[in-house]
Amino acid sequence: MQEQLQKLEVELREVTKNKEKLRKNLLELVEYTHMLRITKTFLKRNVEFEPTYEEFPALENDSLLDYSCMQRLGAKLGFVSGLIQQGKVEAFERMLWRACKGYTIVTYAELDESLEDPETGEVIKWYVFLISFWGEQIGHKVKKICDCYHCHIYPYPNTAEERREIQEGLNTRIQDLYTVLHKTEDYLRQVLCKAAESVCSRVVQVRKMKAIYHMLNMCSFDVTNKCLIAEVWCPEVDLPGLRRALEEGSRESGATIPSFMNTIPTKETPPTLIRTNKFTEGFQNIVDAYGVGSYREVNPALFTIITFPFLFAVMFGDFGHGFVMFLFALLLVLNENHPKLSQSQEILRMFFNGRYILLLMGLFSVYTGLIYNDCFSKSVNIFGSGWNVSAMYSSSHSEEEHKMVLWNDSTIRHSRTLQLDPNIPGVFRGPYPFGIDPIWNLATNRLTFLNSFKMKMSVILGIIHMTFGVTLGIFNHLHFRKKFNIYLVSVPEILFMLCIFGYLIFMIIYKWLAYSAETSREAPSILIEFINMFLFPSSETHGLYPGQAHVQRVLLALTVLSVPVLFLGKPLFLLWLHNGRSCFGMSRSGYTLVRKDSEEEVSLLGSQDIEEGSNRMEEGCREVTCEEFNFGEILMTQTIHSIEYCLGCISNTASYLRLWALSLAHAQLSDVLWAMLMRVGLRVDTTYGVLLLLPVMAFFAVLTIFILLVMEGLSAFLHAIRLHWVEFQNKFYVGAGTKFVPFSFSLLSSKFSNDDNIA
Questions:
Q1: How far apart are CA 497 and CA 469, in angstroms?
Q2: What pLDDT digit, counting tens, does each position of 698-719 carry?
Q3: Which residue ranges of the chain lie beneath pLDDT 70?
């Protein structure tokens, strides 16, 4: 390959050099042709003769520009002709006047077209000049000045016949140069096209060779055995495949000494490998953007597949908008093998890479839109409303009906709003089968009802989500054999969460179930009851249920007791272990090192089990770790973690209210867009209604896509990411690992793909 490229390089250099020479000669001949054409009009020569010296004649009737007149002046006349750039004309003429003291006549004219400079290749405007001078000394000065101003000097013919012969010769040479240049360009194009056929394959081949040698340079060289030793990480399930690959490579290469593989024990933390497919890759990228998981740590991407699109849909809940998003993602999924999509612009490629995320986000938005009964800000009456308006009307005016506040003719005529009373028999016939009743779309207190519903729903979802995150931390502790973290960290955290905020969920659900429309006015406020739980009011309140005060005192006592355990339990236990005590429910054998050189690991390494029977090793380990153990640092770390958790339970619960806020904002934006566009278009009369409705619908569709789908969708997407990173993953996910990046030609690093200097 190197010999072929060198031959090709030499050939291309020679051809290109010859082409540049031919092009330069062609440009000079073209300039010469223009110079002869224009200077022909400067002086008229009627007779061919050589200049001589004679007496000065009378000059009354002769022109100074006439050649015969100049001859009679008795001077030896000379000419210098050529081309000069447009910007240098004035300075050139001034210099000639000063240097030659007026013994020159300069005549110039501008060319009609711009010409390319043979030296620089720049297309500029040129002037043709003709300088007439007397004497050889002045001629030398003129030529030096022309050289200083980079003028292109060409010989000037003395006779008309000579001019004609030069013109004919120039035309012939220009025609020949055009022919030669065309053939040279064709040959150069053929050589380049032939070379371009193998450029891609050669570039790939060179990049692969560079990558291989880069990896070989990372190996250790054994001088005695004259072999390379590579220490690599390999997944355990791929070890048989690696062994077969080494045997096959040794056999095909004909090596006398076969390559072999040995597994070696190590205390280093392995990199993290999580196998994904095209469906799970997008969700795993969301988790990896927060941090690559530690080795064998619980991977939240599995649960993110469901929780992420669901929380997005809670904020984006609209049946129509979700269905449009679902169709767009489905179109990308069905055409995922199309090459233009994977090689498109950055924004479209971003949508393409997250097509399965968009698909689930749209599908879950359809579900929550049906729950909210919201389709482009309008409700859909699928199963029939559970409210009966006719039961509220009565034409009579009996006292019993007056107590039930029924409607009559006077009420209907004079009241701007009518109120439905569910306590009246026949008005409320039961809940809507799925979602919110469509009659709420007509109610004036619709926003108040939806705000109360969505706010409580956000709190419930948030507390469940965070509690699930704390529970996942237990599986980390079980796998890494740190059961003391379960009793001293996870259990107090769960008690703190459930005794306060879990009880809040209980009160919300209990109030929904225990109170009906008839007793709704007697129902106490959940907010007041929740505040009274911490204030211990002196006066007895009605409460939600009997014995509420005793239950709340017990829950508050458990909360208070869990805080010191959370602050001091783990540091004191590790100190106890470090001083030589045995660990209940924990065995040293099979322990896996996860975080290297942490204080917790030091204390665990210092507490060897008696079951191992290695007292000498135990004493040596303690001698090494006694100096490294720092109880103050462990206590400070646990204190910071406990304060962050306790305060975070409150702030994170409030953070989940963004589910309610963004859902409210999306619904209100949809309502405003419908009221300002579609309602106006639909209210126009039938004469011009159709003509106006088409552009209104088009404008409504554009605003819906760009404002409600793109901007609101991006906002809900970012808030869903924040809820997962800060509120959910922070409870159990460390994300301090190193991603396993195996050697692969398809995953060549940028320094191989973007390196222009291929060596």
A1: 11
A2: 899 999 999 999 999 999 999 9
A3: 43-76, 395-405, 538-541, 581-627, 686-689, 748-759
Dist CA 454 CA 659 (whole Å): 8
**Rounded to a whole number, what is the largest CA-CA distance in the chain?**
147
Q: Using the Cα atoms of residue 39, residue 44, residue 45 and residue 50 in order, give the sign of their dihedral.
A: negative
- Pairing relation of β-strands 115-116 and 126-134? unpaired
Which two tokens mark 333?
């999924």
Give the other-Cβ count within 10 Å of 570's Cβ: 24
Cα–Cα–Cα angle for 332, 337, 339, rounded to 5 degrees: 100
Burial 197-230, CB ≥16 within 10 A → b, else e = eeeeeeeeeebeebbeeeeeeeeeeeeeeeeeee
- The label of the residue with tokens 């997250």 reads 354
From the number of C-beta atoms within 10 Å of its C-beta (0-12, 13-18, 19+), residue 465 rates as: buried
Find all residues with CB under 8 Å of 357, minimum gap 6, and list them.
Answer: 282, 283, 286, 308, 309
Query: Cα(250)–Cα(148) distance, rounded to whole angstroms?
Result: 71
**In this structure, how many other beta carbons lie within 10 angstroms of the beta carbon of residue 106?**
17
Per DSSP (E only), the strands in 168-219 are none
Please give the Cα distance from 129 to 90 (Å, whole number). Answer: 12
Half-sphere exposure of 42 (CA within 13 A, CB side): 21
Model pTM greater than 0.90?
no
Q: Which residues contact 285 (CB under 8 A, 6 or more apart)?
A: none
At 365, list the tokens.
């938005």
CA dist., res. 406 & res. 421, Å (int): 9
